[in-house]
Protein backbone atom coordinates (compact mmCIF):
# COMPACT_ATOMS: atom_id res chain seq x y z
CA UNK A 1 0.00 0.00 0.00
CA UNK A 2 1.27 3.48 -0.84
CA UNK A 3 1.78 5.83 2.10
CA UNK A 4 1.90 9.41 0.87
CA UNK A 5 4.05 11.86 2.85
CA UNK A 6 3.06 15.50 2.38
CA UNK A 7 5.03 18.63 3.21
CA UNK A 8 5.85 18.68 6.92
CA UNK A 9 4.69 15.08 7.38
CA UNK A 10 6.34 11.73 7.99
CA UNK A 11 5.60 8.03 7.72
CA UNK A 12 7.12 4.94 9.31
CA UNK A 13 6.28 1.39 8.35
CA UNK A 14 7.40 -2.18 8.92
CA UNK A 15 4.88 -3.62 6.46
CA UNK A 16 6.94 -5.08 3.58
CA UNK A 17 4.09 -4.36 1.16
CA UNK A 18 4.17 -0.60 1.85
CA UNK A 19 5.83 2.02 -0.32
CA UNK A 20 6.55 5.41 1.26
CA UNK A 21 6.16 8.24 -1.26
CA UNK A 22 6.69 11.96 -1.35
CA UNK A 23 6.23 14.20 -4.34
CA UNK A 24 8.00 17.22 -5.83
CA UNK A 25 10.85 17.81 -3.38
CA UNK A 26 12.24 21.09 -4.65
CA UNK A 27 13.77 23.27 -1.90
CA UNK A 28 12.31 20.84 0.64
CA UNK A 29 14.46 17.97 1.91
CA UNK A 30 13.45 14.35 2.12
CA UNK A 31 15.25 12.25 4.72
CA UNK A 32 14.86 8.48 4.49
CA UNK A 33 15.72 6.03 7.25
CA UNK A 34 15.96 2.28 6.84
CA UNK A 35 16.70 -0.38 9.43
CA UNK A 36 17.43 -3.67 7.63
CA UNK A 37 17.66 -5.51 10.95
CA UNK A 38 13.97 -4.86 11.71
CA UNK A 39 12.63 -4.10 8.22
CA UNK A 40 11.54 -0.60 9.22
CA UNK A 41 11.49 2.38 6.85
CA UNK A 42 10.83 6.03 7.55
CA UNK A 43 10.51 9.18 5.45
CA UNK A 44 10.08 12.83 6.40
CA UNK A 45 9.37 15.78 4.04
CA UNK A 46 11.10 18.81 5.60
CA UNK A 47 9.97 22.27 4.45
CA UNK A 48 12.24 24.72 6.29
CA UNK A 49 15.46 24.59 8.32
CA UNK A 50 13.90 26.08 11.47
CA UNK A 51 10.95 28.25 12.51
CA UNK A 52 11.31 32.01 12.47
CA UNK A 53 11.62 33.77 15.82
CA UNK A 54 8.00 34.90 15.52
CA UNK A 55 6.76 31.35 15.04
CA UNK A 56 9.15 29.39 17.28
CA UNK A 57 6.24 27.66 19.05
CA UNK A 58 5.19 26.27 15.66
CA UNK A 59 7.93 23.63 15.88
CA UNK A 60 5.95 21.95 18.69
CA UNK A 61 2.74 21.90 16.66
CA UNK A 62 4.43 20.86 13.39
CA UNK A 63 7.68 19.11 14.36
CA UNK A 64 8.13 17.45 10.96
CA UNK A 65 7.97 20.76 9.10
CA UNK A 66 11.39 21.97 10.30
CA UNK A 67 14.75 20.19 9.97
CA UNK A 68 15.77 21.18 13.49
CA UNK A 69 12.93 19.11 14.98
CA UNK A 70 12.05 16.68 12.17
CA UNK A 71 15.40 14.89 12.09
CA UNK A 72 15.55 13.98 15.81
CA UNK A 73 11.82 13.19 15.93
CA UNK A 74 12.05 10.76 13.00
CA UNK A 75 15.19 9.06 14.32
CA UNK A 76 13.69 8.76 17.81
CA UNK A 77 10.46 7.30 16.42
CA UNK A 78 12.34 4.68 14.39
CA UNK A 79 14.69 3.78 17.25
CA UNK A 80 12.40 4.02 20.27
CA UNK A 81 9.06 2.95 18.81
CA UNK A 82 10.41 0.30 16.46
CA UNK A 83 13.45 -0.89 18.42
CA UNK A 84 15.98 -0.10 15.69
CA UNK A 85 19.57 0.40 16.87
CA UNK A 86 20.82 3.85 15.90
CA UNK A 87 24.11 2.45 14.60
CA UNK A 88 22.28 0.16 12.13
CA UNK A 89 20.27 2.89 10.40
CA UNK A 90 20.78 3.61 6.71
CA UNK A 91 20.06 7.28 5.98
CA UNK A 92 19.70 9.13 2.68
CA UNK A 93 19.11 12.80 1.80
CA UNK A 94 17.15 14.13 -1.16
CA UNK A 95 15.97 17.53 -2.43
CA UNK A 96 17.23 20.91 -1.32
CA UNK A 97 17.17 22.28 -4.86
CA UNK A 98 18.15 25.82 -5.71
CA UNK A 99 15.54 28.01 -7.28
CA UNK A 100 16.06 28.58 -10.97
CA UNK A 101 15.20 32.22 -10.23
CA UNK A 102 18.47 34.19 -10.20
CA UNK A 103 16.91 36.76 -7.85
CA UNK A 104 16.31 34.19 -5.10
CA UNK A 105 18.24 35.54 -2.12
CA UNK A 106 16.85 33.10 0.44
CA UNK A 107 18.50 29.87 -0.78
CA UNK A 108 16.06 27.77 1.25
CA UNK A 109 17.17 24.54 -0.44
CA UNK A 110 20.79 25.03 0.60
CA UNK A 111 19.78 26.04 4.12
CA UNK A 112 17.55 22.96 4.44
CA UNK A 113 20.44 20.69 3.42
CA UNK A 114 22.90 22.44 5.76
CA UNK A 115 20.55 22.27 8.74
CA UNK A 116 19.66 18.61 8.13
CA UNK A 117 23.34 17.64 7.85
CA UNK A 118 24.20 19.63 10.98
CA UNK A 119 21.53 17.83 13.02
CA UNK A 120 22.69 14.44 11.70
CA UNK A 121 26.28 15.34 12.67
CA UNK A 122 25.16 16.40 16.16
CA UNK A 123 23.39 13.04 16.51
CA UNK A 124 26.53 11.21 15.28
CA UNK A 125 24.66 9.82 12.28
CA UNK A 126 26.09 9.40 8.80
CA UNK A 127 24.07 9.29 5.60
CA UNK A 128 24.82 6.65 2.96
CA UNK A 129 23.43 8.45 -0.07
CA UNK A 130 22.73 12.01 -1.14
CA UNK A 131 20.81 13.32 -4.14
CA UNK A 132 20.57 17.04 -3.33
CA UNK A 133 20.97 20.52 -4.78
CA UNK A 134 20.83 21.49 -8.41
CA UNK A 135 17.63 22.67 -10.06
CA UNK A 136 15.65 19.44 -10.00
CA UNK A 137 12.37 18.53 -8.36
CA UNK A 138 12.52 15.00 -6.95
CA UNK A 139 9.80 12.46 -6.24
CA UNK A 140 10.73 9.54 -3.97
CA UNK A 141 9.33 6.04 -3.63
CA UNK A 142 10.82 3.91 -0.85
CA UNK A 143 10.16 0.17 -0.65
CA UNK A 144 9.76 -0.90 2.96
CA UNK A 145 10.71 -4.51 2.12
CA UNK A 146 14.16 -3.62 0.79
CA UNK A 147 14.86 0.03 1.65
CA UNK A 148 15.34 0.64 -2.07
CA UNK A 149 14.58 4.22 -3.13
CA UNK A 150 13.45 5.21 -6.60
CA UNK A 151 14.06 8.87 -7.48
CA UNK A 152 12.21 10.55 -10.34
CA UNK A 153 13.38 14.01 -11.36
CA UNK A 154 11.99 16.95 -13.32
CA UNK A 155 13.54 20.37 -13.99
CA UNK A 156 12.24 23.16 -11.76
CA UNK A 157 10.10 25.77 -13.44
CA UNK A 158 9.28 29.23 -12.17
Strand-helix topology:
Elements (H helix, E strand, L loop, with lengths): L1 E3 L5 E4 L5 E7 L3 E7 L4 E7 L11 H4 L5 H15 L8 E6 L12 H15 L6 E4 L3 E8 L5 E7 L3
Parallel strand pairs: 1-3, 6-7
Antiparallel strand pairs: 2-5, 3-8, 4-5, 4-6, 8-9
Helix pairs in contact: 2-3
Feature tags:
single chain, about 160 residues, alpha+beta, 60s Ribosomal Protein L30, Chain: A, five-stranded mixed β-sheet, four-stranded mixed β-sheet, 3 helices, 9 strands, globular
Q: What report would you give on this structure?
A:
There is one protein chain. The protein has one domain: 60s Ribosomal Protein L30, Chain: A (2-Layer Sandwich), CATH 3.30.1330.200. 22% of the residues lie in helices and 34% in strands. The strands form 2 sheets. It has a 5-stranded mixed β-sheet with strand order 2-5-4-6-7. Helix 2 crosses helix 3. The longest helix is centred in the middle third of the chain and has 15 residues. With 158 residues, it is α+β, with helices and mostly antiparallel strands. It has 3 helices and 9 strands; from the N terminus they run E-E-E-E-E-H-H-E-H-E-E-E.
